[in-house]
Each structure stands twice: as C-alpha cells, then as structure tokens.
Write a structure and sequence with these properties.
Blueprint lengths: L3 H8 L4 H28 L1 H4 L6 H32 L2 H20 L4 H4 L2 H29 L7 H29 L2 H14 L1 H12 L6 H8 L7 H7 L1 H35 L4 H29 L1 H23 L4 H29 L6 H18 L1 H11 L5 H20 L7
Length: 434
C-alpha cells in the first residue's frame, strides 16, 4: 500500500480545475433536468396531464408525481452507490448523467391527457422514476469527485462546488420557463413551448459527458483498490458499523431543513404566489431565478467558511436563518408585492439554503469512511429527500388548506424542521480524514 500510493499520484494527469468543472457542469445539468420537472409540476402538468377536474386535486396529483422522484432517489442511491463504491466514481457518473438526460427529453415528447387519456400521467410517473433513480446516484459521486481530489484545507470549498449546480440548475430551469413565457402566449407555451426546455436537455448532457470523460478516477478510490479494501456490500457495512449508522441517522435529520427549504422557496412558492395570491407567473419565475443565482454565489462562500469553522456550524447557521425568518417571510409574501417576494426568496433561498447547501456536501462526505462513502452519503441525502424534499409541496399545500388559506401552519412546520436539523448537523462527527 505504501508503494502504490505514490504511483497513483504520479499517474494522475487530471487537473483540479478539470475536476471542479466536471463536477459543476454535471450537477448543473442533472439539477436543471430535475427542477425543470419541479417548475412544470407547479404550472404546467396539472393542466396537461391530470384532466379537467378540480384544480386543487390536479395540483396535488402533480406534486405527488414530483414526490415520486424523491422516493426513487434512495433506490438510485443504493444502486449507484453500490456501483460507485465497488467499481468507481467516474464510470457511475457517466451512466447517471446519460440516464437523466434521456428521461428528461422523453418527457418533452409525451402526449397530453387530452390526447391519450390516463396513459399520459402513467408515462409521466415512469419517466419521473427513471429521473429519480439517476439523480439518486449522481449527487454522491459528483461530490466525491471534487472532495476526494481536494487539497488539504480546501475540502469544504471543493465539496461546495458541485452544490453550486443546484442553484444554477434551478436558475436555468426557471429562467428558461420565464424566457419562454415572455416570447410566447399562454396557449403556445402550454401547447409546445414548455417541451423545448425538456428536449434541450440532450444538448446539455452531450456537453457534460465530454467533460466528465476527461476526468480520471479519484485518488482515494484508486488507493482503496490498490490496497484491496473495496467493500463487497457497502450498504450492509454502513448499517453494521455503529459510528456510520449513527452518522447516517444524524445526516438524515439534518437533511430535513435543507430539503424542505429548497422545495418551499424554489417549488411550492410558484404555486402559492401564482395560484393562491394571483401574482404574474413570469414575475415570480424571475424572482426565483434571481434567488437561485444568489444561492449559487453563497454556496462556495459557505464551503470556504466551513473549512475555517467546521461544516456543521455553517449548516446550522443556515437552519437558524430559516427558523428566524420563516414567519416574516410568509407575511411578506402575503403582500403580493414582487419586490417583497424577491427579497424573501433572496434571503430564504439565496442565503439560508445557500449556507446549508454549501456546507452539506463535505459534511456528509466526512462522516463516512472511504470504502462506504458513496453509499453512506447517498443514503443520507437521497433517503432524507423523501420527506425533506419530495413531500414538502404536498405537506405545505395540505397545511395551507387546513389553515383556511393562511400560511402559519406551513411556517410552523418549516420552523420545526429548522430546529431539528440544527441539532442534527452539530451532532454528526467526521470518521476519517479524506
């Protein structure tokens, strides 16, 4: 093992810049695909794929389809986490990117409910499941590609780089929809305009694959292979090892506030402001896009800050902003002012979520050993995504209805998530030096 490590380092011709670019481009494309669906779930799919019945029921069904993707993600995390811990990070990431792009483009070609009836939503669900499985394997590998190449003292910054892709992917998804809404009328947008955004994914994926093919396997995994220490069944090893099992529990709880926050201010807010508050769709899409760009700027700063004071503390700071700001945020949304909405989204999506997201990737990587890291962090991120992310629009829509249209029950739910996640982030402990 001592002689293999230097050879591994010498054979590696991949530059850190190429690694970071591959991670960033890859996650941007993957999250563009995933959150393009989220945006469409709020403003397109209820009208095209779920009949002409009650609009509230159609919206709930659409969000249920959105949530199915998050249920599928832990399956993808198990499948591709296993492959990533057994075969390698690089090959796994190439497969996940191609799979997501194909599923997203296929959604753009789906006939509507009016054309083929109930088959339309069934096919939409199937493609959403494929998307979810692929994304379930993407995130952990993209983060590890950056973190396991990172020099000492910069792992937080490197680990945060793929997370920028979430903000950029959301900005691209909502930005494209906003642009299409500006250049065409509602009839054209609902007929074929929204489809352009989905089909364009094929071009983005082709670019991403070219970049990822230029990156070698990570040094950490190659050292593991050289030492013949690759885990045979990573998921079992995670659950058998008490420290890993404990950290899995803490990271699952930490995920609650981060996932709920993103899907409140990036997804649910579209339906709440447009359908409930009757605000112009394009204006809200632009506000979300602005906040997403702010988030993309905050994420690397949070990662670098985590290198100085610890990932858990930075993550907790983002949760505290959510807890303190959520009630005033909903009060400001209720004014119906686009200026107020933009300010709320900049603080809650840009700052609060940006702090959590920027610290999260390296925090989750540090608390699992190399031989089970891909699987462990994928289970934490994707498993937590079921309740923390996928169910959030459904939960908030239900709480809004239960509160007679007032948002205070929904705000209380988010505040609770912030408190629990603050404690969990501070309790997770690193197991191994990366």
């Amino acid at each position: 093992m001592t002689t293999a490590a230097p050879e591994i380092e010498q054979q590696d011709s991949t530059s850190p810049r190429t690694v970071l670019l591959a991670s960033l481009i890859g996650t941007t494309i993957e999250w563009y695909d995933f959150f393009l669906f989220a945006t469409a779930a709020g403003i397109v799919f209820p009208r095209l794929f779920y009949g002409d019945g009650d609009p509230t029921v159609a919206t709930l069904l659409s969000f249920a389809t959105f949530a199915i993707g998050f249920v599928a993600r832990p399956i993808g995390g198990l499948i591709f986490g296993h492959i990533g811990d057994r075969v390698g990070r690089r090959e796994t990431l190439i497969v996940t990117m191609a799979l997501t792009g194909i599923a997203t483009a296929a959604i753009g070609f789906l006939p509507s409910y009016a054309a083929i009836g109930v088959v339309a939503p069934i096919l939409l669900v199937v493609l959403r499941v494929v998307q979810g499985i692929a994304i379930g394997g993407e995130w952990g590998g993209a983060v590890l590609m950056a973190v396991e190449y990172a020099p000492d003292g910069k792992r937080g910054l490197y680990g945060a780089t793929p997370q920028i892709g979430l903000g950029l992917g959301l900005a691209l998804g909502t930005g494209v929809f906003a642009l299409l809404g500006l250049v065409m009328d509602d009839a054209a947008f609902l007929s074929w305009g929204w489809r352009v955004a989905f089909i364009a994914s094929l071009v983005l994926v082709a670019v991403g694959l070219v970049v990822r093919l230029a990156v070698m396997e990570t040094p950490a995994f190659r050292r593991l292979q050289a030492a013949a220490e690759v885990s045979r069944v990573p998921a079992v090893d995670v659950l058998r090892d008490p420290p890993s099992r404990r950290n899995l529990g803490w990271t699952l709880l930490a995920r609650w506030a981060e996932g709920a926050s993103f899907n409140t201010w990036g997804v649910f807010v579209l339906t709440y402001t447009v359908a409930t508050l009757k605000m112009p769709r394009t204006e809200v899409l632009v506000a979300v896009t602005v906040a997403a760009v702010v988030s993309a700027l905050v994420v690397p700063l949070a990662g670098a800050w985590g290198d100085r004071i610890g990932r858990g503390r930075v993550f907790a700071a983002g949760c505290v902003v959510l807890v303190v700001g959520v009630f005033p945020a909903f009060a400001l949304l209720g004014t119906g002012s686009i200026v107020a909405v933009t300010a709320v989204l900049v603080v809650m999506l840009g700052l609060s979520y940006g702090l959590c997201s920027g610290a999260e990737s390296t925090l989750f990587a540090e608390v699992f050993p190399t031989r089970t890291r891909y699987t462990g962090m994928s289970l934490a991120f994707q498993g937590g995504g079921i309740y923390a992310s996928g169910l959030t629009p459904l939960i908030l829509t239900s709480l809004l209805a239960a509160g007679g249209g007032t948002p205070w029950l929904a705000a209380g739910y988010l505040a609770l998530a912030g408190v629990v996640s603050t404690v969990a982030a501070l309790r997770a402990r690193p197991l191994e030096t990366l």
